[in-house]
Amino acid sequence: MLNYIIKRIGIAIPTLLILIAVTFYLMHAAPGGPFTSEKPLPPQVLANIEAKYGLDQPIWRQMTTYLWGILTEFDFGPSYKYHSRTVNEIIGQGFPITLKYGFWSFIVAIGVGIPLGAIAAIRKNTWVDYFAVGVSIGAQVLPNFVLAPLLIIVFTLWLGWLPGGGWHGGDWEYLVMPVIALSTSYMASIARITRSSMLEVLNANYIRTARAKGLPTKTIFFRHVFKPSLLPVISYLGPAFVGLITGSVLIDIFFSTGGMGYFFVNAAFNRDYAVMMGITILVGALTILFSLIADLLYAWIDPKIRY
Amino acid sequence: MNYLPKSLAVGFVLATFATSSVFAAGTHPVTGEALADDQTFTYSLLDEFTTADPQMVEDVSGSYFVRDLFEGLMNQDGDGKLIPGVATGYTTNDAKDVYTFTLRDNARWSDGNPVTAHDFVYAWRRLADPATASPYSWFADIMALENVGAVMSGESPPEALGIRALDNHTLEVRLTASLPYFAAMTTHASTFPSPQWTVRTFGDGWTKPGNIVGNGAYVLTEHIPNETATRERNTMYWNNEATIIDKVVTLVINDENTDFTRWEAGETDKGAVPSGQYPRLKAEYPDEAISFPRLCTYYMTFNLSPSGPEAFKDVRVRQALSYALDRSVVTDKVLQGGQIQAFTFTPGATAGFEVPAVAFGQMSQDQRNVNAKLLMAAAGYGPDNPLKFEYMYNTSEGHKKIAIAAQQMWKETLGAEATLANQEWKTFLKTRGGQNFDVARGGWCGDYNEASTFLDLMTTPSGYNDGKFSNAEVDELMTSARTMSDATSNYTRVEEIMANEMPIIPVYHYTGVFMLRNNLKGWPFNNVEQNVYSRDLYKVAD
User: What structural domains and CATH numbers belong to chain B?
Assistant: First the structure.
């Protein structure tokens, strides 16, 4: 197991380096730069700015300088758009926000999704099943760019219960709508995966055997059905968790949460190279980390899997 | 008191309290209106502002912060007229190339230091210094400060710049050209003073709350990027007594529909009007849905460079396409925000500019269509030989609607086949700047309230002339306009030439639309540049 972990980390480093190199190249290949604007800067002004940020250097030199800064000082560079802020500050401010609403969305998605799927599977082809499937399909097809404004209209404008946006350090009333809007589609996916995998397990031979030898339903369910039917859910949860905690641009746009998703997308439009790079590295590293965790969980749940 | 029931006594005390607090809020010193107790002004921003550093700021929303947090030599009033700021006045020589400003002696920074002429000298040098690498350093260039070119290129030290403090309260500026309107340029954010001691101490982070020191009516007390920023009254400001708004709060709301919903829910005083919704909101909120002319023009530019299509070298084709575009469809059916049809490049709202009666602007659309057909036929295009070209715009729903409308009109009236193409913003700028287009969308907002801010674009050397239109008479008229005390006749002539040569198709002049709460007063509607100073605003009691 330990060997396996070391090997995976060994692969992670070149993977990240390739990610950085490809992103760096693609970013610079996109037409225009951070200082391209409708009113083009006079050549002298542009030259001064490019010299200040080292953008006049060849790409390979820019990349090595950038990597060197990260390795030696953990410095991800300055933002070209927000002049008084560094990438470290932008991520330091945006990531905890995204992490918080992403984490709660994850909890809600699992907390509602798994029981919903399980109930549907156990009461297959009854009204409970139809209801659960209906809810999850409804939640899945309702995109969050529709759900988010709807929530604001209902809870802020009509009922006046919740503020229409903002973050305020993540007080619960600012958290409710982002979490609902972000978790619904994940919740729906989890419910559907749980239901289908549980149905498969319920039809397995060893469950029939368990029933035949007269085990109570409760024991069958918790001891023999629940754990194995979670396997496909877990392989889904790894990337889903990374997706949730690395930000949703739509949540940031509709609820003015100030999270990282909006910075990421905006950085691409602004060609704010360092911000884009910094967030890419963070998301890349987290993706690698959580797929490793998901794989380890797999081994824990399924005794057949050995690394 | 014994004989009063307790609840009544409490009520009495509370009532007294309430009365006294209304009294404390008082009345407006000039208009006499009763003022609201809570003088907090909350408005939304579609995007986070870039910085509050006067010499680095480049966006409109950031400039508004800078105007609140700092004060320049001169200010604008509600009509956009020049009024004293830190300077009580100025004198100039006959050649109008030396300006001497006298600074008030009671101006203070928020840390208590006096505001002196040296602070302006420091700021202007900082603006031009290549080490600062300000994206707005070109403003120092158009101010024609002595030696600005040499300083910006690093050949001369920043100290060589044509600005010096004669004493603490006298500032002398030397220019390389005669600029009669120079004083007006000192209302621009990039010319505002900076506190050298704070910039030195905190480096790039000097504008963060806690670090920032300003000389404006407000100080920045809170800033959570992409969420909110708060500025509160600067008690050191020399005219603090006259300030009424205590606190200005911005909320970043990236979506205009949500923005409007939150305005409707009472969270903001000023909010967005979602595109296409102005007529509905005007009917629902007649006093609060605001539309006013802006110094901006939406146009389409022909590629007249050697790489452009051969067809557009023929002026008749350009005229035909311009004539056939029914501007009223764009303004009244597509946009519906009170926009003004454009037949000239310069908007009518520009100071000192009379919209000339260009011939095609006087015709009815039917007449224009008839003429367009004749011109197109004369140029050799018809049903057997339709004109084909590509119209390029930057990706946006709004631009797309206009493009589809134009495509349809060109097809119906002229049989011309326009294909539509769109590109993401920065890619589009690269494409247009590299003359890799047939016809491209353009939008231009004036940098200052004078026609040359538009018409200079049409001169041969202009870096913004993406269509590469070149006309010797236009170049000459614009050059001579610079030193004229009244250049209106030159501008009129340039517009007439453009109406004949049609290097661009003017489509409409922009309007600004927003929702503004009824009880917020003092908004400078007559200031076409929309240079708002929060200290001029106030809230009246409901």
Answer: 10-252+517-539 (3.90.76.10), 293-512 (3.10.105.10)
Separation CA A177–CA A151 (nearest Å): 7
Of A35, A38, A148, nearest to B135 by CB-CB distance is: A35
Is-above-0.90 flag for pTM?
no
Measure the CA–CA gap between B513 and B338, rounded to whole angstroms.
9
d(CA A136, CA A142): 10
Please, what is the Cα angle at A63 between A60 and A66, to 5 degrees? 150
3-state secondary structure string across B486-524: CCHHHHHHHHHHHHHHCCEEEEEEEEEEEEECCCEECCC
User: Which residue from B minimizes the CA distance to A249?
Assistant: B254
pLDDT digits over B191-248, tens only?
A: 999 999 999 999 989 999 999 999 999 999 999 888 899 999 999 999 999 999 999 9
pLDDT at residue number B135: 84
Kindly report, residue by residue over B62-109, the tens digit of the pLDDT: 999 999 999 999 999 998 889 999 999 999 999 889 999 999 999 999
A158 close to B (CB below 8 A): no
Of B152, B154, B265, nearest to A45 by CB-CB distance is B152
Mean pLDDT, residues B129-149 taken together: 89
Closest chain A C-alpha to B147 CA, distance in angstroms: 14
Q: What are the start-end ranges of the H helices in B132-231?
A: 138-142, 148-152, 182-185, 196-202
Is A156 in the B-facing interface, judged by CB distances under 8 Å?
yes
